[in-house]
Please model this.
Amino acid sequence: MELEIYNCSIHKPYRLCLGMASANTSWSEEDFSCSICLDVFSSPVTTPCGHNFCRTCITKFWDEQVTYKCPVCNKIFDTKPDPQVNRLLSQLAAQFRTTVRVKEQPCVEPAEVPCDVCTGTQQKAVKSCLVCLMSFCQTHLEPHQRVAVLKGHRLVEPMDRLEDRMCKKHNRLLELFCQTEQVCVCQFCTEIDHKSHLVVPLKEEYEVKTAQLGKIEAEVPQMIQERKQKIKEVKDRVELSNKVADREIAIGGQVFTALIGCVEKCRDEFNQTVQEELKSTEKQAEDLIKELEQEIEDLTNRCSEVKQLSHTKDHLHFLQAFRSLKDPPPTRDWTTVEVRPPSYVGTLRRSLDQLEETLNMEMKKLSDAELKRVQQYEVDVTLDPDTAASNLILSEDGKQVHDGDVKKVLPDNPKRFTKYIYVLTRQSLSSGRSYFEVQVKDKTYWWLGVVRESIDRKGWTTWSPETGYWTLFYNKGVFLFTDNPDVRLPLRAELQKVGVFVDYDGGVVSFYDVEARVHIYSATGCTFSEPLYPVLGPGSRDYKGNNSAHLIISPVNQTD
Model:
């Protein structure tokens, strides 16, 4: 038997051969569709009243009902029926699924909602059902216009993803937006769970969010561009770091090569000195041995002569021979003669002193080169009177400060120091590398370096990097880097000018003796998260007027 099957979109018959000897019979697609899901039967079963449904559809339908009835004829059953599989209809539906081939292309535009029932060419949906949670073309909408139980379903304009548009709790369309909890809700939600919340229509919230999205959309390209620029900066910094590293390796290689040569030279000279002293000792021993051997030979000869004479019995001959017996050979008193091993005391020390002298020379060359490099990062800084303690006196150009020994009445300024006799500069250091110099000549007490912007300027505090202080402190015989604990530094004779270098990105603060052109101390591995300010503390004068000299921010002389 052949079935003449009509496609829902083009209404052209297709013949489905069922392999039965009968006349041609025309069948519509509805004959193979479940009246609940409106799709081609899947595992079709027949109810006692003779209607066919998908097993899953009818089982779910009865599970949701209080009474068991047929969805088509509304016949009520006393107990839940156990529908039997309709094998013939199952075979026909299976053949229908696999045999029909629709050659036409889908006729649904991208912006349109397709019919969920069409199995061939999908037609544009004209309505969506909020009960079935499906969309229907004009052809498949017909049962909702004809079947009584389907007429009560709520039809709306076509919508895609209907299941996502329904409230899971009340099975109603999500038509509103709760601004309080920022979720989509249905009308029932506003009367129960969101009763006191601010709720607006979806369209209204859509327009608000669309405006926000437009702002974000405009900001994102700028953010992308900023990050691309940052990538370029990072790459440039890495390239620069490679160049600096190559330069440092070259300089370091020269220094270490010179040091290795010096060490080898000192070693060779030390070995040569030891060998010469050893040879001198060996020569002395050889000379003594030769002299001893000669005395032994002379004594041995005399012993032979004496022995021979002692055997003579002739009195005349004995007396004549005795007269001719030679006098004993001269000999040394060997009791005080000894060969002492060479003393090498001081030999190694002298070699190491020479090595230390050479090393100091190389260190001085290195410090001089290092100082010349950091001096290239000179910054022009001037003192800020708004931060100066009330007894400090600043020069008009903002380059000098000293203790006036009298507290002035000044406006209450949150930036001003009240407990310590300090002053900051107007300029901050917040990136890159910076260097400045301060003259400390003729001062017996001073304090300088850099501090974080956020340090406490009104109370007492501990000076350390943890509290935002990277500073040197000098008071007569005490010279140290302020830390917890403090780092004591060797006193530097005639210290006249201190250079301060800050590598903000590298986390380094270094101090230099400018006149001696040597490095004093470096704080490394620092993390800076806010601007740093140069800070000067000239210290107070004593009753004799000592320490009255000024701290002076000096211009850098790079020709030294």
